[in-house]
Amino acid sequence: MRNHKKSILTKFYIVAAFMTLLLSIIIVRIVDIQYFQGDKYREISKELTRKPFTIFANKGNVYAADGNLLATSMSKFTIRMDVMSVAAKTFDKDVYELSQSLANFLGKPTSYFEKKLRNARKFKNRYVLIAKDLGYNDYVKIKKFPIFRLGVYKGGFIAEQKTVRAHPIGKIAERTIGYHDTRGEAGIEGAFVEDLKGEDGLRWKQKIAKGQWKPINDVNEKEPIDGHDVITTLDVNIQDITHHALLRQLEYFEADHGCAVVMETATGEIKAISNLGRTSAGKYYEKRNYAVWESHEPGSTFKLASLMAALDDKVIDTSTVVDTEKGRIFIHGKRVEDSQRGGYGEISAARVFEVSSNVGIVKLIRKHYDDKPEKFLKHLKEYGLTEKIGLPIKGEGEPTFYYPGKPGWSKISLEWMSWGYGIAITPLQTLTLYNAVANNGVMVKPQFIKELRKENRIKKTVKTEILNPQIASPETIKKLKKVLENVVVKGTASTIYSPNFSMAGKTGTAKKFIGKYVNEKGDTIPAGYSNKRYVASFAGFFPADVPKYSCIVVIHDPNKKKGYYGATVAAPVFKEIAQKIYTSTPIKDDIVKENFSSEIIQNLYTSFNKEITENNDIIPNVTGMPAMDAISLLENFGLIVEVKGIGKVKKQSLKKGTPIKKGATIILNLS
Q1: Please, where are the H alpha helices in 491-587?
Q2: Cα separation of 356 and 351, whole Å?
């Protein structure tokens, strides 16, 4: 008995000792946590219950030069439902009415939604997808539906918001406007992302019941700073004209892809740029920015550079005679031939250019540069053709040129280069060269941006950048402008000639070089120039005597059965663009003279002409005039016109008879 008691006591002491030790450890640990590591664990606690939330800054908008919105941020909502948070009585009572509302709104049968919601309730689904990518107005409507109107906790309504970029004018110029998202950075959005995105803000929140977070303070720790608005050089009217002119031609000729660009001659501002590629279904969309990205062999449009170099070195004149023989010659075993069978015989250098004689230009360049090709290539460098332009838009194509003594150079490289083969440049490089000729030799950099603004205040103005103040002598430029005009009047582009407005330019037709490949039969086809695949192009400017705009059109792989020459495929697009721009924005010093049968129309025309030519230093009275006529008149005076309303001019902000200040803004209130 005594031993038994002793055993119990021993066990008691052991347990007591263990408990004492455990209690001591706990006390030591509490003291350690409380006093020695207290700060550490308090921080861990805060991290679990408090955290910073990013307040995203509003991304800036992208605008056209005329104020049209090209890209903006907008909210999209995904709607889900936690069916288990809805009381059983409420769910059974109103689920049919909710299903009916969803059916009317989303275009599916009522039975579809009722079955979906009842199954979700049965399987306790707390995250049922109802609809995706709803706009704000639709979100507000669906939020008021039966059950949903009870809110998050009683109605199970879950709305997930995201911000997306929208293009109000649709797919037009989509690649140039661009994007900055999971796809990468492209176009204007990608190039100016740092200016557009702004600076995100910060707000601390505390975790509360059911995993919800609420703000700790009434104010943000850091306020977001909205991004800048980017004002582009694009003109929506000219962009629309360019897009649809190119699209119609691509569709008719069943071409693979193409591009068209319109540039303002004096400033280099890109007023329109369209890049369209063909899908497997035969539809066209803004697939890639071909004008900026795609380097290709230009063909005969490059003859402008060859003729410019020879004229400026004074080794030839436009009157220099060259024998094109019978339209075919061989150089080191390689054939050069003209499109006209039998050739053109003995013709002037000017006529060589006008009829686009390959034989003629090759013989001229070979005669004067065969022993000094470096001199010819030096000119090409001065023309800005051998290097990238240096555009802000990412993905600019790399030009390809070969040099004597370097890999790729051969004994026929100079001759092939002279008529646009064996090299590669982008359409925008070609346009920049033609624009320089139109601009009396001043080469300006293509410009996509006019201004950066914030809260309607100009923060930065992008000025015209001169790449070369004089690419050739004034005498050479004058001669080139004349032969370019004659290409349209009596040369390869005579099919687009119009007596009503003048154009100048050059056609281009280049065979495509196809690399080695294996055909459908399994045969290996060696690399070489195709007789079935072509690049048709036209580059030029208008009006020919006082150029306002330059333009290039490039179309790849047209259906050969329908046509493949630059004059047939690309030049008509140029004409349509020029004609529509010309008639919608007439040039002050180049008014079209027509015969009018109506005396009233004749009087109006005479009055309009007199207003432009005689009183060009004071503000005219445009009250009562149709808006389009008033805009044309005022813009010809160098004024910036803002229009409010539609119809005829009811009121003008600048009074009639006051002196004109170029660049001033006049506001027209329409009836």
Answers
A1: 566-569, 571-584
A2: 8
Half-sphere exposure (Cβ direction) of 346: Cα atoms closer than 13 Å: 3
- Distance between CA atoms of residues 506 and 571, nearest Å: 9
**Three-class secondary structure of residue 82 per DSSP:** coil
pTM here is 0.72
Show the tokens assigned to 11: 């066990």
What sign does the CA torsion over 408, 413, 417, 419 have? negative
CA dist list (Å): 114 to 96, 99, 130, 171, 569: 6, 5, 12, 38, 57
For the stretch 366-411, pLDDT in tens is 999 999 999 999 999 999 999 999 998 888 999 999 999 999 999 9
The answer to whether the beta carbons of residues 328 and 455 sit under 8 Å apart is no
Type of residue at 316: I
The two three-digit tokens of residue 212, written as one number: 């919800």
How many CB atoms within 10 Å of residue 579?
Answer: 18
Q: Which of 376, 384, 392 is nearest to 431 (CA)?
A: 384
Is the N-terminal amide bond of 626 cis, ω within 30° of 0? Answer: no
Residue found under tokens 């601009």: 439
pLDDT, one tens digit per residue, over 462-518 is 899 999 999 999 999 999 999 999 999 999 999 999 998 899 999 999 999 888 777
DSSP-derived 3-state class of residue 663: coil
